Amino acid sequence: MKKLLLSTAVLALTVACQPAPSNDTTAENTHTATTGSPEIGAWGFDLTGMDTSVVAGNDFYRYANGAWLDRTEIPADLTNYGMFTELALEAEEQVQDIILELAALDAANGSIEQKVGDLYGSWMDTSTIDQLGLAPAQPYLDEIAAAQTHADINALFATIHHQSPYGVGIIPDPADTTRYTVFVGQGGLGLPDRDFYLVEENQSIRDAYLAFIAQIFDLAGIEDGAAKAQSIFDLEMRLAESHWTQADSRNIQKIYNPMPMAQLASLAPQLNFEAGMEQLGLDGVATYLVAQPSAIEAAGAIFEETPVDVWQDYMTFHFIRSNAGALPEAFDAANFAMFGTTLNGAEEQRPRDRRGVNLVGGQLGEAVGQVYVERHFPPESKAAMEDLVANLTVAFEGRLEALDWMDDETRANALQKLSTFEPRIGYPDEWQDYSALEIQADDLFGNLFRLTEFEWNEQIADLAGPVDRNAWPYPPQTVNASYNPLMNQITFPAGILQPPFFDPNADAAINYGGIGAVIGHEIGHGFDDQGRRFDHDGSIRDWWSEATNERFEERADVLEAQYSGYSPVEGRFVNGEFTMGENIGDLGGLQMAYTAYQRHLDACCDGEAPVIDGFTGEQRFFLAWAQVWRRLYREENLINRLATDPHSPSQYRTNGVVRNLDVWYEAFGVTEDNDLYLPPEERVSIW
Q1: Can you tell me the distance from the alpha carbon of 654 to that of 65, in angstroms, rounded to the nearest whole number?
Q2: What is the pLDDT of residues 529-556, one digit of tens each?
Q3: What is the pLDDT of residues 555-602, one digit of tens each?
Q4: Taking the model in full, what pTM does it have?
Q5: DSSP 3-state assignment of 481?
Q6: CATH no. for 140-327
Q7: CA distances (Å), 67 to each of 46, 51, 304, 630, in order?
Q8: In CATH, which of 3.90.25.10, 3.30.360.10, 3.40.390.10, 3.30.1360.20 is domain 2-73+377-428+472-682?
């Protein structure tokens, strides 16, 4: 199971982010709008990006961002471009400076400086990579070729370097989040999702993928590439037909299927899970969490019915493809043409040095992140964020107490969960130890495999002990934020705590409409359609009364219908069920942030914000939200995202949210004559 990466189902379970409130913290503590100058504009917003010829009530997204959308071009080596991208590219440059400085040191062997420098250097040494050809991969290809029986293939499935029709990972046990359990889920596809195999409109992608498989065999000097490609594609098509949809795979009530080994083994006896788990070091677990039982059962039947030589070809192709970046340039270029251009529309491959920065920044992220934090994340930013999180929490507490559709017992449970949220801001308290990892200057292929083994061995070591609540889902330089329902934690890395999301010198409305709404979004994940299934300890428990549950679902169903009607590409629509959690997070987060902003004004300004450049405080708040989400997509990337990304496209993260908020109508004078107008009875308010 290639690298034992967690599937969509596990990511849905472990999506990270949650804040711990302080009930005695008030809005007066907010550290926003200090004495310096904002990085963007005079008060933190890009006025030059607006298109005021557009009526706000007709298309608020374009009103706030139209000029920027018209003048901006997506760089040739990117598939989309927006505020997140700008921040990520800035962080990438900063991380590259750190890596190059560390690489230039005369570092002792085994030091973290040596490991960072040599990993980057081995990636950049393309002359050695080209000279070696397929030689570094040959031992792994030979073990595939040596397989004689289905039992031999099964043994290869139970390694950390080979593709298999199922995925395995180690996660906190949703029944008891103080301990770990083993996850088993559907897998085995080369394209990102079942829809690329099954939806008629994706035929051109299927044709390109079939040709790509044959091309990989041709490049490797393996005969009968076209015939092998057809057999592999047919195999993956059968797997895709058994796969669950993205919407079902994020539904905790459907994917939470704990079972003992005997039951797992009987589900797909052809896959011999008992021997495989023992080989992987995952035996002895009381229960295994099986996400998509019917897909696993089908995989067993497909495995038995597929000849050994087809499985050999399948594993050979996927091994070469998944390691293309560490192989000669022809393999790398072919892989990019398929997954970068055909699937996502990129015109050029990203420069190899930047890809190397992302490799090192991902694999040795906390080593680089320590230096990043020292240079780019001042202590006052952490303090200001702590205050903002506390203020958003107090605002949400007030909203919970005032909800008229929630009964008192359910409300008490919700307040208990909110009170135990744990925010993590900027960087971890404990940094990862890389001392057991070996990196060699002239061995990229070996480095990548030793990194995989290092990561897996750490997970195996964790399995026997208590859950590590200090682990972070990504390094500090990441431009993202997340909520983990199993830990009831929200995480805001240093990378996102920059303008336009957060600027301590900006107008308060900008910070509340930017990072404040992001904080609210992540808090809201604890109470979205899936997060609400977990209690204050992170365990799966139904703490909702039947009547309150019905009222929640009534509101959620209306929101689902709204988003399912949005079509960013002709003939293709947002999946309102799949994007439900993110849409609830956006809507609830903006409502929380607005309430917190009003609390801030009550504390500092007698409830009144000044008018700046003709915009009221309320208008600036909503403009900040719209600016955060401005983004251009290549059509191929947007189509891919509609199938695989639980977030709605950016225009709907703006327009789809604000049209449900009464205060937005009031702020911009929106009436029934405007395109975004919804009658009050059709507006959704959940949190």
Answers
A1: 11
A2: 999 999 999 999 999 999 999 999 999 9
A3: 999 999 999 999 999 999 999 999 999 999 999 999 999 999 999 999
A4: 0.93
A5: coil
A6: 1.10.1380.10
A7: 10, 5, 58, 11
A8: 3.40.390.10
